[in-house]
Inverse folding.
């Protein structure tokens, strides 16, 4: 799924940068946003991506826990808005910006891959994995304790 999403962002950035789909003024704004959204270097991007990974894992967990569409939309908004508001880095959304910068010539491809894509993916994996592992461990531990307490009462 990650590779397919990255391929999609690659082609979107290609079309945005190399066609007349987007006007010149808007392209300048996209480039500025791309620079702001991808700066930081390997370790800062990784660090900020950990929090984005955690928030996306939280969102997936919360959305799966409810069936109400309005609640799901609200949960998606509440858990993803901080990614942008706090400058966290998400591998897919940020890949669009990094690829756009590379297609525009504002940065090189090696920079896009090594200074943004790789650290963002690593950080997102760490953040998402830690959250899911901790929550699942807590749930399993609680279920195990409940089962043991039930058996002790027998």
């Amino acid at each position: 799924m990650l590779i397919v999403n990255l391929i999609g962002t690659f082609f979107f950035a290609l079309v945005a940068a190399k066609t007349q789909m987007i006007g010149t003024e808007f392209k300048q704004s996209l480039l500025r946003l791309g620079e702001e959204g991808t700066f930081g270097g390997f370790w800062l991007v990784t660090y900020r991506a950990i929090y984005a990974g955690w928030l996306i894992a939280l969102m997936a967990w919360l959305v799966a826990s409810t069936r109400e569409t309005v609640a799901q939309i609200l949960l998606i908004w509440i858990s993803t808005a901080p990614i942008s508001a706090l400058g966290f880095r998400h591998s897919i959304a940020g890949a669009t910006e990094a690829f756009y910068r590379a297609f525009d010539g504002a940065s090189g491809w090696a920079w896009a891959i090594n200074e943004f894509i790789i650290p963002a993916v690593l950080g997102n994996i760490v953040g998402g994995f830690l959250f899911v592992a901790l929550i699942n461990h807590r749930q399993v531990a609680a279920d195990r304790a409940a089962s043991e307490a039930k058996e002790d009462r027998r």
Remarks:
- The longest helix spans residues 109-153.
- The CA atoms of residues 38 and 116 lie 6 Å apart.
- The mean pLDDT is 90.
- The chain has six helices and no strands.
